[in-house]
Design goal:
Elements: H1 11-17, H2 26-33, E1 37-41, E2 46-48, E3 56-62, E4 65-70, E5 76-82, E6 87-88, E7 102-105, E8 109-115, H3 116-124, H4 127-153, H5 156-171, E9 173-174, E10 179-181, H6 187-194, H7 198-210, E11 214-217, E12 220-223, H8 226-232
Antiparallel strand pairs: 1-8, 2-7, 3-6, 3-8, 4-5, 4-7, 9-10, 10-12, 11-12
Helix pairs in contact: 5-8, 6-7
Length: 235
C-alpha cells in the first residue's frame, strides 16, 4: 500500500494548478481542500488497473503518470502522459463504471485524489464547478479526436514530429542548447504514443538528429531547431 502523503502545507497552490479548480474562489477552494487525499507512488507503481471500479478522480501533485491500454499479447498503447496539475480518470467522475485504462507512475510521484461521491456532493451545491468539469471533459474529448486524426491522416514521421512538438510545449525547458525535453519514458513508450514500433521511432529520431532538428543526450531530447520541427507538423 503506498504511503499517504500530507498535502496540507501547499494544497491551495496545488489545487490552483488543477484545471477544474483553477478559477474557484478561496471559499470554494476551501471546500475542495477538505475532500483531497494523496499518496506516494514509486516509479513503475500502478495507481489503478483498467476494469477496476472507478471511484475517484485524480490529479498529479508532482511527478508524471502514464495512462495506457493493454492488449491480450501484453502490448501497451499509451493514451496520455500527465504532469503536475493534470487531471486524469475524470471519465468515471459522473457516470461511475470502471476505469477505461490503466494508470502508472513513470517516475516517483505524489498523486492527489478525490472520491467521486464526495465531489458529486459538492457539485450539487456548486454549479460553477460542474461547468468547469464539463469543460475539461470536452477538452479531453478534443485531444482524443486529435489523436485519432493524427493516427488516421499522418504518416509515422509526422506523428513523431507532432508528439515531440507537443511534449516540448508541455514539458520542455528552454536552455542555451535548445528546448530540453526530460520526459522519463522509454523508446518503446514513445513508440506506443506514436502508434508504431520502437525500431521505427529510433530510425526517425536518428534522421531528425542527422537533419539538425534535434539532439539526443542520454535520456534527454533537445529540440535544436523548433521551426524545422514545426514544419514537420503538417496541417
Amino acid at each position: 500500500m503506498p504511503e499517504k502523503e500530507d498535502l496540507n502545507p501547499e494544497l491551495e497552490k496545488i489545487l490552483k494548478k488543477v484545471y477544474i479548480f483553477s478559477e474557484l474562489s478561496d471559499e470554494e477552494l476551501a471546500k475542495v481542500k477538505r475532500l483531497v487525499n494523496a499518496k506516494n507512488y514509486k516509479k513503475g507503481t500502478v495507481i489503478f488497473f483498467e476494469g477496476e471500479p472507478g471511484d475517484a478522480v485524480y490529479f498529479v501533485k508532482s511527478g508524471k503518470v502514464k495512462v495506457y491500454k493493454g492488449d491480450d499479447e501484453g502490448r501497451e498503447y499509451i493514451l496520455h502522459i500527465f504532469g503536475e496539475g493534470d487531471v486524469f480518470a475524470e471519465a468515471v467522475l459522473l457516470g461511475g463504471g470502471t476505469y477505461p485504462a490503466t494508470a502508472e507512475a513513470v517516475e516517483d510521484s505524489v498523486v492527489g485524489f478525490i472520491k467521486n461521491e464526495d465531489l458529486e456532493r459538492l457539485i450539487r451545491g456548486n454549479p460553477d464547478l460542474a461547468i468547469k468539469i464539463i469543460r475539461i471533459m470536452a477538452s479531453r474529448l478534443r485531444d482524443s479526436q486529435e489523436k485519432i486524426k493524427n493516427l488516421a491522416l499522418r504518416d509515422t514521421y509526422d506523428r513523431t514530429a507532432c508528439l515531440l512538438h507537443k511534449i516540448s510545449l508541455d514539458y520542455g525547458q528552454r536552455t542555451s542548447r535548445g528546448i530540453e525535453i526530460d520526459l522519463p519514458v522509454t523508446r518503446q513508450e514513445l513508440a506506443a504514443l506514436v502508434g508504431t514500433s520502437r525500431e521505427t521511432v529510433t530510425r526517425i529520431l536518428s534522421q531528425m538528429k542527422k537533419d539538425g532538428i534535434i539532439d539526443i543526450d542520454r535520456q534527454k531530447i533537445i529540440v535544436l531547431n523548433e521551426r524545422k520541427l514545426m514544419r514537420c507538423v503538417k496541417d
